[in-house]
């Protein structure tokens, strides 16, 4: 591919440099790397975002930037909502759960709109980090009415998927309303995923319906772009 601009040349040079460093090794510090490549730190940081999005490098707060190397990408069509575990099993990969936390909260203005419940309705909020190949890849939060799911019902060896748990319990959702967009990582998500605050993530939110009127779960997931590929299969109307 032809290099048509100084920025493209920087990306090409940076790509070559990254390819020569073994996975798990740390890159030079930003000041040293910027000096070596003859660019400003701001320009270098912008060029590095391309490789972060691809999942080839990862910045860790206070530790530096590390080479990840090529990683398997979890793919899913949004026509059918499925868990990370289901995606991983289909591809022969393993996932693990860490930083698992369950909280009792009261419904806020935003949550009453998403769950169709009165203000200050008791809710249960389940948050966790999902890792693939021992690397944090997604931060998930599910919020449900506590009269539909209580903390005591969750099994000791919860595998991370509220959706799979509900299906196994016999409460299979009939519909899901899904939205996907790009978001800058809030500080608490960046810390959980071991990235920098402000890094771009895929944000997927969904409302699960048990019937036409009953929303049973409002979930938000932040996904590292280089690890996930969500797509939609559309039918052409003739």
Automatic annotation (TrEMBL):
Highest taxon, organism lineage: Bacteria
Record InterPro entries: Bact_HTH_transcr_reg (IPR050679), Chorismate_lyase_/UTRA_dom_sf (IPR028978), Tscrpt_reg_HTH_GntR (IPR000524), UTRA (IPR011663), WH-like_DNA-bd_sf (IPR036388), WH_DNA-bd_sf (IPR036390)
UniProt key word DNA-binding: yes
Record-annotated HTH gntR-type domain positions: 2-70
Tagged with keyword DNA-binding: yes
Keywords: DNA-binding, Transcription, Transcription regulation
SMART domains, per the entry: HTH_GNTR (SM00345), UTRA (SM00866)
Residues that span the membrane, as ranges: none
GO molecular function terms attached to this record: DNA binding; DNA-binding transcription factor activity
GO process annotations (BP): negative regulation of DNA-templated transcription
Any Pfam family hit: GntR
Name of this protein: GntR family transcriptional regulator
Organism: Candidatus Desulfolinea nitratireducens
